[in-house]
Amino acid sequence: xxxxxxxxxxxxxxxxxxxxxxxxxxxxxxxxxxxxxxxxxxxxxxxxxxxxxxxxxxxxxxxxxxxxxxxxxxxxxxxxxxxxxxxxxxxxxxxxxxxxxxxxxxxxxxxxxxxxxxxxxxxxxxxxxxxxxxxxxxxxxxxxxxxxxxxxxxxxxxxxxxxxxxxxxxxxxxxxxxxxxxxxxxxxxxxxxxxxxxxxxxxxxxxxxxxxxxxxxx
Length: 218
Known about the structure:
Layout: H1 3-30, E1 35-42, H2 47-62, E2 66-75, H3 80-94, E3 99-108, H4 110-115, E4 120-123, E5 128-130, H5 161-183, H6 191-194, E6 199-201, H7 202-208, E7 213-214
Parallel strand pairs: 1-2, 2-3, 3-4, 3-5, 4-7
Antiparallel strand pairs: 5-6
Helix pairs in contact: 2-3
């Protein structure tokens, strides 16, 4: 093989190697690196707060680089409708990617409602979880005032105290049914225990099936 032929072969091999290196670099830049999105749910959960969390969940659902989502929760709960809103958002997110709830200090009441929608729930041994139920304020009885006219007997209060209690029971049952549906056979206690509204430590929560494992998102 003459010198020119050797040179041509060497240049060809070098060109192929260069093309291979460039191809790998381009592929790495075009193919997203798999990652885990962390969404924090902290403090009291109210209507205006849910917009931020919903946006974060929506972005995670649409991002092809996100392979799983961790909900990092430290909240005592909050408004019923806001908690329900995020509960359904987590269910929607779970349709497209795995979702894990990691409880830091506390996931009580509405915050646990949200956590229950995740595929798995983890908590620290001393974390607080549970508190299934609803808190409300009974309406004040309407006062009789000869100078005040209303179009209905409960226009001022919105309803009787009996009706307010009935509505609370409906909300509690909705909450309870959601927990039973999501935790299913992982629960070791029945609805009569869960509906008492108790708060459990992470270790206790694991024993009765409110969480899957004592640990952390790591």
